[in-house]
Specification:
The structure is a homotetramer of 193-residue chains. With 193 residues, chain A is mainly α. Chain A has one domain: Tetracycline Repressor, domain 2 (Orthogonal Bundle). In chain A, 76% of the residues lie in helices and 0% in strands. Chain A is built from eleven helices and no strands. The radius of gyration of chain A is 18 Å and the shape is elongated. Chains in contact: A-B, C-D. At the A-B interface, helix 10 and helix 11 of A face helix 10 and helix 11 of B. Chain B binds a DNA duplex (21 and 21 nucleotides) through helix 3.
Chain lengths: 193, 193, 193, 193
DNA sequence: CATGAATGAGGTTTCATTCAT
DNA sequence: TATGAATGAAACCTCATTCAT
């Protein structure tokens, strides 16, 4: 992969795109993104041949960052529940610390501009992590057919929790643990309170 | 005198908008919507002064339809769990029967074009129903501060379930009951398997 | 001339058009004019087959009103200067009392929508009056070729005076007499202060 | 790098706009202006972000040209009257040579699209010139409160003269000097014929 | 390689006018 | 006669993309 001249510029473009998409959705203009990245309008197209390419690259990029945060957040791997708890907390706290990134991802994920290929690549980012959690999951959710479903339920609950924590910062700690409790009851094999 | 404004045309516009937004997001053009509704482009703006007004009206309209389906779906009100189950099944089956409507709603709900006022109106559509379910909910989720959170978790799980059921029609029945089981564990007071 | 059903409606349309044109120029929409006149959009076109017809009718109407005010304002016909002074004062005070009408006329008079025919009709409204003033005018301005020019100079000075008097109400009296003095010096045969 | 913004194109746009506004008023379409300037419609909006911006820029531009003509026209500065005469003649002859520009200015000046800021900038173009004339003006018109009024009367008479000279080219010389005589009588301190 | 001027298709919205009621 | 719903051309403006510099 011939890397472009300046990795800095590419990064600046992704950062600017994150903010723009978070605030304006995928309708955010390439001109705005380039300007906020501090590069010329035409330069954007040297790094991303197409706006759609930029969006797909951004989606993958942000999901990768999230994934790295999850991996870095694993501290106590003694029991499935502590693992799940670490993952949950890392997820939520990444979303809270990177509000715009989180919002950008949400907006892109419902868009038809993100191709199935990109979605597939994103799925492949997470496997190990989920394997860890899944050990604790209910039998029904552990069959090959349904493990994606379990993941999706996990993500749905986490995203909802992030949203509420952002909306009600004063009660964010309570929401986060209430959310975790709900997730654990929903998905885990045993439900010891 | 003069011909009366036609409720049919308004309906045709909302229907056409549903399909267009489902497929292309809120970027779907008014020209396309009008054409598919079988009216002139200028006519659209007699019924909805602004594209944003159309989107907000559409959002409210679809959520109203969903709400009516939920109310119509209440059959067995003997126990909290049967109530919750009816609601769950109605929700999912409305989503499955009205794929485009469901997709349109999802896309609009993450858009900044839907105003807080509209969102508030939508919230007010649902109260009785949720009261019913909430009787069965865990204490923690029944405080005023957290009942919205409980609702949101319910919706998140249901939407995820709909999405998977659409993607895997052959296994939709299993997914639906697996989803219900997860929701019930997550949110209900008692967790008898 | 078969008069339309309701002279009231026609009048209401002209009044509404006056305000609309004063505020928005000839771009003011027929829909707005009709609404402010309290009639339906289509009704406007029963009284004025075309928007241009409405504008021309309005121009003639307002100039007629002005002309009537000038004639009514003649009080002291003893000397040319008192006549001129009465005309001047009537003109200015009509402009000040009918700001919107005055502004509407100004905007229409530079527009290509007002036809030469209408402009000719307007010219024909004023003759007698000007004959009176002209007795006092300089020889050079009394030849057939230049009497229109003298009229136009009179009007130009009067309109400028109105504009300034509107802009500076506190000093309007001074402006009006300063304007009159200037007009009299410019156009009259003798210049006794 | 990248091709520089072309002053030629900007000029072509202003020229095309002058003609279009002269003939059709401020309602002249951006499409027509761009086409007559030989550029794409989108290009117009790179030079003038808004149609209103174009109109304001055009107004300022034309008034600047006029002002330059007035300054270049000063030849004999020996007496106030010769100065005034040079200014008068330059003004009229600029109007005659630049009919469309003159007409465009007239139409724009009664429009609400021209902002107070632009009007202020235009006022500031002229001060020195008027100072020259004002030395000859009547005391009453030399007070700070009324010097603007004197200017406006001067302009009103000049514009009227231009209009008549255009309408009657055969007699334009007579009209011009008749106009000057009237202006001088109206505004100057002494009125020696 | 980087730039940003240029493009023109396409977006939303307005509006004079027509015509079914 | 009066109405106002319907129309579609045309308005202003945006934008992804190209390409001369």
């Amino acid at each position: 992969m011939a890397r472009p001249r300046s990795e800095d510029k590419k990064q600046a473009l992704l950062d600017a795109a994150t903010d723009a998409v978070a605030l304006q959705g995928i309708a955010a203009s390439t001109a705005l993104i380039a300007r906020n990245a501090g590069v010329a309008e035409g330069t954007l197209f040297r790094y991303f041949p197409t706006k759609d390419d930029l969006l797909n690259a951004l989606y993958l990029h942000l999901k990768t960052l999230l994934c790295e945060a999850l991996q870095a957040g694993l501290k106590d791997m003694s029991t499935p529940k502590t693992i799940a708890c670490d993952v949950w907390n890392s997820y939520i706290s990444w979303g809270l610390k990177n509000t715009l990134a989180q919002r950008a991802v949400r907006r892109m994920s419902v868009s038809e501009k993100i191709t199935p290929e990109t979605r597939q690549q994103v799925n492949e980012l997470f496997p190990e992590l989920y394997k860890l959690c899944q050990r604790a999951m209910r039998q029904e959710l552990m069959t090959i057919e349904f493990e994606d479903f379990g993941d999706a339920l996990f993500l749905a609950l986490a995203e909802t929790t992030i949203e509420f924590a952002l909306r009600h910062p004063a009660r964010s700690q309570e929401l986060i643990s209430l959310g975790f409790e709900s997730m654990w009851r929903a998905l885990a094999q045993e439900n010891p309170v």
